[in-house]
Amino acid sequence: xxxxxxxxxxxxxxxxxxxxxxxxxxxxxxxxxxxxxxxxxxxxxxxxxxxxxxxxxxxxxxxxxxxxxxxxxxxxxxxxxxxxxxxxxxxxxxxxxxxxxxxxxxxxxxxxxxxxxxxxxxxxxxxxxxxxxxxxxxxxxxxxxxxx
Length: 148
Hints:
The protein is mainly α. The chain is built from 9 helices and no strands.
């Protein structure tokens, strides 16, 4: 749609913030290409100085959620830190918060949490995310560390 409006594709390629990387990240994750999503979501989601302007601020929770999920799915070394840092950034957006919780459940192999999140997405009116949760739950999950 953006290209149809006459936006130069070169401008989108360099866009680090706002809706463009969010939609690009969503597409990469949909295509099961988390490495591509990690590359597109390369700006730190915790950088309040960058995400402060009104034009991009509303996209920050979505960006943070995808930033965390892509890192988990790509086995990125910062995945655990991204999960922790994303949680406060998504707290006012229940869908983005559920995406972060799904990423956390995937990272820890918590199948019960994944099952519950399918219901959460259904209650939030998000059939795509509900179906995505089922698909992701079918992957080989890491073994959670034993307690204690």
